[in-house]
């Protein structure tokens, strides 16, 4: 059994209208989801710990601000969820806001550009930045977000993303970054 804590305001999103989201996750992953205040338990009904892990990741994604329609993509074994804790990069409320603002950008433009180029979804919620998508796309988006957090210019980050995606189209992944793609 897995136990998770998610923000109280995300519990209604997890439950869905008349319990529809919770029921759908339980049905698709063969799990039972229990909710007590902000604690969520996930237990496999078929003894398969992988389905328990998948359901837990979906619940975590919803708790980190993703729409349930996006979070259920984690049922695909090629998808992953990466959560960056801003406390690893900042220690004051002002620095948290600065980082979140850099990642979101004016009118959400920076986040949308990273999502469009990397093909990963990004949620900036509370003191976390969560990235969901195919493994390689999440790794690329994570690097872009970390570059922004560490102070890189937005144009530099976009160029990195475009070069990375162009290189992926040209050659299959070899496990090494070409020298021209290092951030």
Estimated share of beta-strand residues: 15-25%
**In order across it, which strands form the biggest sheet?**
1-3-2
Order of helices and strands: EHHEEHHEHHEEHH
Runs in which pLDDT lies below 50 for 5 or more consecutive residues are 177-183
Radius of gyration over all CA atoms, rounded: 18 Å
For this structure, the CATH topology of the largest domain is Ribosomal Protein S8, Chain: A, domain 1
Mean pLDDT: 90
The number of helical elements comes to 8
What is the name of the CATH class of the largest domain?
Answer: Alpha Beta
- What is the number of beta strands? 6
Q: Which structural category do the helix and sheet elements fall into? A: alpha+beta
The global form is globular
Looking at the overall shape, the CATH architecture of the largest domain is 2-Layer Sandwich
* Percentage of residues in helical conformation: 40-55%
Instruction: Name the CATH homologous superfamily of the largest domain.
Output: K Homology domain, type 1
How many separate domains? 2
First-to-last CA distance:
40 Å
How would you portray this structure in words?
48% of the residues lie in helices and 19% in strands. It is an alpha+beta fold and 183 residues long. The chain has two domains: 2-75, Ribosomal Protein S8, Chain: A, domain 1 (2-Layer Sandwich), CATH 3.30.1370; 79-181, K Homology domain, type 1 (Ribosomal Protein S8, Chain: A, domain 1, 2-Layer Sandwich), CATH 3.30.1370.10. The strands form two sheets. A three-stranded antiparallel β-sheet has the order 1-3-2, covered by helices on one side. The chain has a three-stranded antiparallel β-sheet with strand order 4-6-5. The relative contact order is 0.11.
């Amino acid at each position: 059994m897995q136990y998770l804590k998610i923000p109280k305001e995300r519990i209604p999103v997890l439950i869905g209208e008349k319990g529809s989201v919770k029921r759908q996750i339980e049905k698709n992953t063969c799990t039972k989801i229990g909710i007590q205040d902000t604690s969520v338990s996930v237990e496999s009904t078929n003894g398969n710990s992988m389905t328990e892990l998948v359901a837990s990741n979906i619940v975590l994604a919803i708790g980190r601000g993703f729409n349930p329609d996006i979070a259920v993509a984690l049922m695909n074994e090629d998808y992953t969820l990466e959560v960056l804790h801003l406390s690893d990069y900042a220690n004051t409320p002002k620095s948290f806001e600065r980082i979140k603002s850099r990642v979101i950008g004016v009118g959400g433009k920076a986040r949308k550009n990273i999502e469009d180029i990397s093909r990963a979804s990004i949620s900036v919620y509370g003191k976390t930045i969560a990235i969901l998508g195919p493994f390689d796309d999440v790794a690329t988006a994570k690097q872009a977000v970390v570059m922004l957090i560490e102070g890189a210019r937005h144009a530099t980050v976009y160029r990195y993303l475009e070069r990375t995606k162009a290189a992926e189209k040209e050659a299959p992944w070899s496990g090494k970054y070409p020298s021209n793609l290092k951030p």
